[in-house]
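Quick one:
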Amino acid sequence: MRLGLVSDTHGELENLRLAIKKMLEDWRVEVLAHLGDECEDVEAVRELWKGELIQVPGVYCEHYRDPGIQNRLVRELGGYRVLFTHSREPHANDLPGDLNPLEVAARGEVEVVAYGHTHVPAVSWENGVLWVNPGHLKAHDKKGHGPSFAVLALEEKGVTAYLVDLHAGVSFAEHFAPRGGFARFSF
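Output:
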């Protein structure tokens, strides 16, 4: 099963359309997750994405302060528990009861943490948890990284994370995390 990750679209609908097109045609993504900062952008391009959509708001979105909307959520996909969050760490705008990504990962309650916020694409393996940040989809960003997205191949043998350059459509970083290397947890 393939999971596509986008974050920090900030109204860049043309780049989001291109990312969705590449995820569908080139990467065969089945589930798409938007990790905040303008997560509602996906609704503007819904004509392209008909599949399952997971959304979490950015820490500065008005939705982040709505207790009726989950700021962080855990979903089982492809046999793995994935935490979806905008920020990798607790944030001053968190609501009471919001999950703490660092604690959830440290307790081994998830195998993958998908996050955004920094606009810096990253993939790392920390204490049996795969952490993935797809970067951003802005045309220009002051942090020096071009627009990118991520694809996770969730397979029986493990998870492969690909960081993908939006315009080239090719992976510029990959990391394979074997199933046996993950922290143990029960469903």
